[in-house]
Every structure is written in C-alpha cells, then in structure tokens.
Write a structure and sequence with these properties.
22% of the residues lie in helices and 42% in strands. The chain contains three helices and 14 strands.
C-alpha cells in the first residue's frame, strides 16, 4: 500500500471507545506523501493518558496517541471524531463548539486545530499534517451550560434573603 514514500491506495482506520460514545476515524488518502516512510511501518494508534489536561478546554473524548510522533504527511490526513447524541445531551454541550486539539510536545501545550463540526452527522473533522496526541474538546466556558443562569439565581436568592432580613429588622424596630 505504501511505495516510494507514498500511500498508493487510501487507508481508513477506525477506533471506537468502549462506551460507544466517541469514535475516531483516520483517513490516509491515495497519493499521500509520508516524510518518514521507515517509521510508518511502526504505525501505532492507541488510547493514551493526557500528558496534561488542556488549559481552557474540557476533554469530551479519550486521548488518542497516533504515532510515531511527528511523522508528517503531505497534503494531510483527515481525523474524524464521531460522537453520540447521548454524549452531547448528558453533558449539556454546545456541539458546534467541539474542537480537535493536538498536543505540541515541544511547547507542552494543547493546540486547537481548525475543526469542521457537522451537527447533523455528529462528526468533528480536521485535516492534520503530522502524528501526535489528539483529543476532542470544548472550550471550558462552553462546558458549563446554565452556569450563568445558576449564578444569576444565586445572586437573586441572596438579594431576596437580605431584603427579607431588612424587612424583619424594620418591623422589629417599630
């Protein structure tokens, strides 16, 4: 399938997590050039432990380690995360905010990838040009739906309690 640094016939790899709530499909298209063909024979796709949690993000999928790390591709490969409606509903997520992140080993930080979210088919797609560690995440501010409403309710409740207390004090003073 791989000849002279090039994928001659397209390859599709699928990895589904045990909960069936998220799966990852990796598509290596025909005529894809690989910058380290000797390493591709050691291709690994596995679940991994996040080197660190993505700052400002909340993971909604397992962490996938695609390796060997830094093996590059031209023009790129497609990562497609498929997620269940159950995942979105149970966590109250705004699925249009889903983003694929990769872990930059040099900087030690998670980096967002330009992600296309297809809410009709429950997929988040990105074109990437190298192997590393990937996950699907949502901005931390989006992961807490209703948190602004809950804060507003708490403030109103405090104001009501203070007003009732002041009214009781005023009645006592008469």
């Amino acid at each position: 399938v791989i000849e002279n640094n090039m994928v001659k016939q397209g390859i599709v790899l699928n990895l589904t997590d045990l909960s069936q709530r998220v799966s990852l499909v990796i598509t290596l298209p025909s005529n894809l050039t690989i910058n380290a063909p000797a390493l591709i024979s050691n291709l690994t796709i596995r679940y991994a432990t996040a080197p660190r949690e993505p700052e400002g993000w909340v993971r909604v999928s397992p962490v996938y380690d695609l390796g060997p790390s830094k093996v590059g591709f031209n023009p790129g490969i497609t990562l497609s995360f498929t997620y269940s409606d159950e995942l979105i509903k149970s966590r109250g997520l705004n699925e249009s905010q889903l983003t694929i992140l990769y872990y930059d080993e040099d900087s030690g930080k998670w980096v967002p990838v330009n992600t296309l979210v297809d809410t009709m088919n429950n997929t988040a797609l990105a074109n990437v040009t190298h192997f590393t560690i990937f996950t699907l995440a949502i901005p931390a501010t989006e992961s807490l739906p209703g948190s602004h409403n809950q804060l507003l309710i708490a403030i109103v409740a405090i104001v009501v309690v203070v007003l009732v207390f002041l009214l009781l004090l005023k009645k006592r003073g008469r």
